[in-house]
Amino acid sequence: METPDQSAQEALCEEILAEARRESEQVVRRARDEAAALLSQAAAEADQLRQQRLAQARAEASRKAELILATVPVEAGRHRSSEIEALLQTICERARGQLAQRQKLDYRATVVSLAAEAVSRMEGDAFLVKLPAAERRAIGDGLAEQITRRLGRPPLSITISDEPTLPADGLLVQDAQGRQVWNNGLQARLERLWPELRRQIAVGTSLVPRNRPAGGGI
Questions:
Q1: Are 185 and 167 in contact (CB under 8 A)?
Q2: How far apart are alpha carbons 129 and 181 in whole angstroms?
Q3: Which of 12, 17, 134, 144 could be bridged to 158 by S-S, CB 3.0 to 4.6 A?
Q4: Buried-state track 50-64, b at ≥16 Cβ within 10 A, e below 16
Q5: Is residue 172 a contact partner of residue 163, using CB atoms and an 8 Å limit?
Q6: CATH label, 106-189, candidates 3.40.50.2300, 1.10.10.10, 3.50.50.60, 3.30.2320.30
Q7: What are phi and psi for residue 118, nearest 5 degrees?
């Protein structure tokens, strides 16, 4: 038979155990709530970080896209310039080939014209016109007289001579003292006039605007 003291002690123990269980349950609930809150906060922070990184990635992609788009006109212009240069170079090479073959040329009349032009740019009244020996023989006699008539500047002394160092279509004009020398052969003349010719071709065919120079870069 339990005594009053034993009953009181058991009741006290039960009360203590019950209180412990309640506190334990509260602790567990708080822990769960805190864990849930921490998980929610972590998820929100992770989502915010993802959004920030996504925004940064989009901004970087947009910046790179703008840089790429900005280079398109430059690259297109460079490509166009390269294509125009190649086309003009092809035209120049074709002109060189036609001159070398003397297509559609009265070569004697051409030599007279080229020699007369060179003489007209020099001072004096005595000049030496040098040609390759083979060309001089092929052209024949009377060349000096033709040049003189073309210039219309009597009295004028013009001598025709051979120059073995000249190329096949070469033509060298100098004064009697050799102080003034003018290389007016076909290829040399084309080389000298090509910058202006290429500009005229580029503008005339609308490859470049009329007010834009073609020399040194289209």
A1: yes
A2: 10
A3: 144
A4: eeeeeeeeeeeeeee
A5: yes
A6: 3.30.2320.30
A7: -65, -45
Tens of pLDDT, residue by residue over 70-106, are 777 777 777 778 888 888 888 889 888 888 888 778 8
216/65 Cα distance (integer angstroms): 32
Long-range pairs of 210-216 with CB within 8 A, sequence gap ≥ 24: 214/88
Pick out the chain residues at pLDDT < 70: 1-6, 8, 20, 207-218
| DSSP code string of the chain | ---HHHHHHHHHHHHHHHHHHHHHHHHHHHHHHHHHHHHHHHHHHHHHHHHHHHHHHHHHHHHHHHHHHHHHHHHHHHHHHHHHHHHHHHHHHHHHHHHHHTTT--HHHHHHHHHHHHHHTS-SSEEEEEE-HHHHHHH-S-HHHHHHHHHT-SS-EEEEEE-TTS-TT--EEEETTSS-EEE--HHHHHHHHHHHHHHHHHHHTTSS-TTS--TT--
- The pTM of this model reads 0.56
**In terms of residues, how long is the chain?**
218
Q: What are phi and psi of 181, to 5 degrees?
A: -130, 135
Backbone angles phi and psi of 158, in degrees to 5: -125, 130
